[in-house]
Structures are given as C-alpha cells and as structure tokens.
Amino acid sequence: MLDSLYRIARPLLFRLDAETAHRLVFAGIGLVPLLAGDRRPDPVLAVKVAGLDWPSPVGLAAGLDKDGVGIPAWAALGFGAVEVGTVTALPQAGNPRPRLFRLVDEEGLVNRMGFNNEGAVALAASLARLRSTGRWPRVPVGANLGKSKLTPNEDAVGDYLNSVGALRGKVDYFVVNVSSPNTPGLRALQDKEPLKRLLDAVVPAAQRTPVMLKIAPDLEDDALAEAVDVAVDSGCAAIIATNTTTSRPGTTGRLDQYGGLSGKPLRPLSRAKIAVALAAARQRVPVIGVGGVSTADDVEEYLAMGCAAVQLYSALIFHGPGLVRRINDELAARRHAAATRRGT
Ligand SMILES: Cc1cc2nc3c(=O)[nH]c(=O)nc-3n(C[C@H](O)[C@H](O)[C@H](O)COP(=O)(O)O)c2cc1C
Fold it and tell me: Over the stretch 70-98, which tens digit does the pLDDT of each residue have?
C-alpha cells in the first residue's frame, strides 16, 4: 500500500525542492502505522546492541526525524531502532534554505541543514506524549545530541549536559554527535582533549542510559582510532560510524553545493572508516555501521565486517517506505536458507 503510494508520488516529490518534499511527506507521517500494518521483523533478525534489543539490525539514522514526530511510523516500517535528532539544548532554525539537495542518478544527498530543531525540552515533551498515549514503539529510541550554534565550543559541555538533563529517562540511548559538518567548529570536539572532557561529563550524567559516539568519515585513521579509544575509556557503549562527508568522491563533485554528502557515493569512504573503527574498538564496544546502506547485501557486508547493527537514511528517500521491510525479508530468507543448509 505504502509502496504503491510512493510509486505514484515519487515523480511529483522529486520535482519539488527536497526539503519541501520532506515536509509534505511528514504532514502524513501519522498515517503510516495505519497504512503499514503491524508486521514485526522475523525474530531471526533480532540483535543486541549496547544492551538494547533491536528486532532488526537496520536502524534509522539521525537527521530524518529531528523532533521525534514520526517515531511509531519508523518502527512500523521495520526499523529495528529509531534515532531522533540531532537535537540541541536551544531550539534553532538551522541554515537558510535551500539546504538539502539530491543527486538522483548517484542516489546521494548533500545537506547543510545545520541542526534545525525545536530543542531538547520540546523533544522531551513529545516523547512523554508518545508514552502517555500508548504509542511508544517496541524498538529502542535514541536521542542524538549536538551543540547549539549559539553556544561557543568552550561551553559545549554544559550545552550537551542541558540536553541530557532534559531527555534522561525518556530515551533508551544517547548519541554524542561531534561529527556533523554544518555547525562551525563542531568537529573540533572530536580532538582528544575536548572529546575526553565532553564524554567524561556526558557518560556519568546519562546515568544508566548508554551513550554512543558518532564520528565523521573525514577523520584521518589515527585521529579516528584515537577518538574510539577516548570513547572506550570514557565508558561509551558504542561507536556509530559514520556521519556525512565534506569530501566529494567520484562524480558527485558536479553538484556545486557545500554540506555533507550521504547515500551511495559515501559508501566506500564509510566502509573504510568503519573498518578503522572496528579495528580500534577491538570488540571492547560495538560499532554501528552507517553510510550508503541500501540493500540486504550492504547490511550483510557491514555485519560480516563485525558491525553489531547498521543504520540508514538516504536510501529511504530513493527507494521508498517499503525498503526496510524488503531488506528485513531478504535477510530473514537468507538466514532460514542457511539454517536449512546446515540442517538446523
Ligand atoms: C538530510 C540529512 C540530515 C542529517 N542530519 C543528521 C543529524 O542531524 N545528525 C546526525 O548525526 N546525522 C545526520 N545525518 C547523517 C545520517 O545520520 C547518516 O550518518 C548519513 O547520512 C549516512 O547514512 P546514509 O548514507 O544512509 O544516509 C543527516 C543526513 C542527511 C541526509
């Protein structure tokens, strides 16, 4: 049903500015659970990540649902976990539009949204409403936290702590995002000393809620490995690799827009940096692989490398709302076929 709607709507949506299309789709997001029906992923797909039970290894990456308005929809579409945000302590408008661009042939996106969001307090209120109305999903929900643009880097720790304070007890995990390219100075917080100061404050403040660190694919291998070590030493529960890239691999350079590149063209770089993150983590913490995942093969590849789970965002734009269920079904069929071959 949703896929038929998508097939009809796609040519129209793709003629609109990308953010206008996004807003149009979000206007109907409340209907998605009704249209999608209640079909859980096959139990064979269940994974545990940082102590949390994901019914599928495919999670929703941050940025699509910054204010947590569509959480039941993402669970209904088959995602095994939902990461909302990036949310900041202060509400903010983000960068001027246009700020989101499609590379249709390459299945890539370039964005410079700049953390447009209603703020951590507003997100906490929506999450509370979701719980009180019995619409909380049966998948883990994480809040991805960023620094407010108005807050200088020297005060970043306090800014993140304000968000943790607003959201503690309301989400299943936190993500410290120091890797988005569209907030000036944010990625400097990935350097050893500021990162250590930040995580040494956030992890205890989160109390029992696991804290994950999301890193950029533009870090040199040494710096990436160092960030992973800092995260492990500070008690982080997982690494999420990777965010978008400011580089323009392959033919994507023809889109003359600054911002972070995601989707298929990001995949080779993400894959390389995920390998670095896995080697640095040395199984002390799980790694969630993100970047250009659009098929069951892509998921299998990241899992075979050693990732505990994956996330995706851009592929949903190009392949529609049925994508995650199709991936789940394909993965489940392969698992069952493999079990039959083994005679189990
Ligand atoms: C429009 C857009 C907005 C994004 N916003 C955020 C964000 O707010 N916080 C974040 O950590 N990642 C953000 N991301 C990055 C994604 O979470 C993900 O790391 C990246 O897009 C790679 O995955 P993909 O190739 O499956 O899209 C955004 C990505 C896109 C395309």
Answer: 999 999 999 999 999 999 999 999 999 99
